[in-house]
Each structure stands twice: as structure tokens, then as C-alpha cells.
Amino acid sequence: MGRTMSLRRDIERIIKGTPLEKFKVLEEDRGCVLLMGVYRDRTFIVAFMEGDRSRYAKIVLAECTPSSYWHCDYIEYVPQGLYVFRDNLERLINVVLVKLELMSRSPQDICKLIE
What we know:
The protein is of the alpha+beta class and 115 residues long.
């Protein structure tokens, strides 16, 4: 749990002043911090995870993913969403923000297109 608390603290420090600052932590579990929030009127789930060699994130539109999968153990395995890999948490968060911007512009019926 210590590793996860450190990850959460690092994420909170880096996202301060960004649109991600308004996201709320849904879950913390073994090297995973799961956030939920609204970006440009779209609700997103973002999981930040630590692997052995890198840090990565999975970004999904909440409307495309059943809420029963909004957990660290499950979110990696849903087919919808985008992954981002970086070796540095600050760079990872910057790329997540770019992906959120792109995904927020997707058509409202995007879930039907990606089934």
C-alpha cells in the first residue's frame, strides 16, 4: 500500500492546476490509482499504474464502460479505451491530457462505433 500512496501523492502533486485536478480517486490498489472526472462535458475513468519497467495509464469514456468494471483489477481488460506508456509520471500525465482532449471530441455515439 505504501507504493500506491506514493503514486497517489505524486499524481496529486503533478495534476494540481490541470483539468485533471477535478478528478476524484475511485480506488487505490497495488500500484494503481483509479480516477474519475469530467473533461469537456465527458466523464472519463483514468487508471494510473506502475509496472516493473514503466508507468502507464488506461483512459476510458465512462459511458462506454459498465460501472462494474471501474476497478483497478478490471479496467485494464475492457476493450475500449487508450493506453499511454511513459517512464516518467509527469510526461505520462501530459500525454493523458492530450488523449483526453482528443477523446472528448469524439462523437457522442462513439460507444456504438467501438463495440
